[in-house]
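Progress note, sequence design subtask.
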């Protein structure tokens, strides 16, 4: 909601701002070293009410769910990183073109939505159902085609940059979050058990004389680790596995 208000308020102010001040907020790639703040300010300018309307509709419909998933701070970070990535993509591929608009940030939010809910149906024009992941693929192809063709007033490479920025940010943050969650789980397990279990392999387990039901549970947890990674196991599952891990001095040497 704060982003929506900021975009609408600044667009309303555009007509009152002096041309000099307005020019200082537009992202012009060749001026990036002398006007680095435009990497952010350009996202809050728009060329027309329709330009603003479509961006804000996208931000509202996709952003509400993504913000609920990520939380306020991570959502704002996602939005800003996507916008900055869009500006940098424009710098690389269209260095002579001035850029304004929230599209790169909104495209980043769309990418996040598609990553979290890839099969969710999006109704184009309120009628045509398209899965979120398909929408991202189609708009990527259209942006590539439009960028290569050139012409028009659409910053196609900024849109693509928004996609890339969001993907990289979510990939990195998800990876770090998974690592932190796993470390918290390991900290909750007794140190000796955690050490034995951290790099546990199926051949390391000692299941001699163990009941078949227990073996089945061990295999279930190992299959879960194989499919989803070590970070997917719970503290209880870690403790359970540690009961069957050999002491360090009995661990096979590779």
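Output:
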């Amino acid at each position: 909601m704060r982003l929506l208000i900021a975009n609408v308020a600044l667009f309303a102010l555009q007509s009152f701002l002096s041309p000099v001040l307005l020019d200082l907020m537009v992202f012009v790639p060749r001026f990036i070293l002398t006007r680095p703040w435009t990497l952010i300010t350009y996202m809050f300018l728009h060329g027309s009410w329709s330009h603003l309307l479509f961006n804000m509709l996208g931000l509202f419909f996709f952003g509400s769910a993504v913000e609920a998933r990520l939380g306020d701070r991570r959502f704002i970070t996602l939005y800003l990183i996507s916008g900055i990535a869009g500006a940098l993509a424009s710098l690389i591929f269209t260095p002579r073109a001035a850029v304004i608009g929230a599209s790169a940030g909104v495209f980043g939010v769309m990418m996040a939505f598609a990553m979290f809910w890839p099969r969710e149906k999006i109704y184009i024009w309120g009628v045509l159902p398209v899965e979120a992941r398909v929408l991202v693929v189609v708009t990527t192809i259209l942006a590539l085609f439009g960028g290569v063709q050139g012409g028009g007033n659409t910053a196609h490479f900024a849109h693509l940059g928004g996609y890339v920025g969001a993907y990289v940010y979510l990939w990195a943050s998800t990876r770090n979050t998974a690592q932190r969650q796993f470390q918290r789980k390991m900290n909750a397990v007794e140190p000796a058990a955690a050490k034995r279990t951290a790099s546990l392999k199926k051949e390391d387990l000692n299941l001699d004389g163990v009941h078949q039901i227990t073996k089945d549970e061990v295999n279930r947890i190992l299959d879960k680790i194989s499919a989803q990674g070590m970070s997917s196991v719970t503290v209880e599952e870690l403790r359970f596995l540690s009961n069957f891990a050999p002491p360090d001095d009995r661990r096979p040497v590779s």
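The domain at 2-174 is CATH 1.20.1540.10 (Rhomboid-like fold). Work on this subtask will continue into the next period as scheduled.
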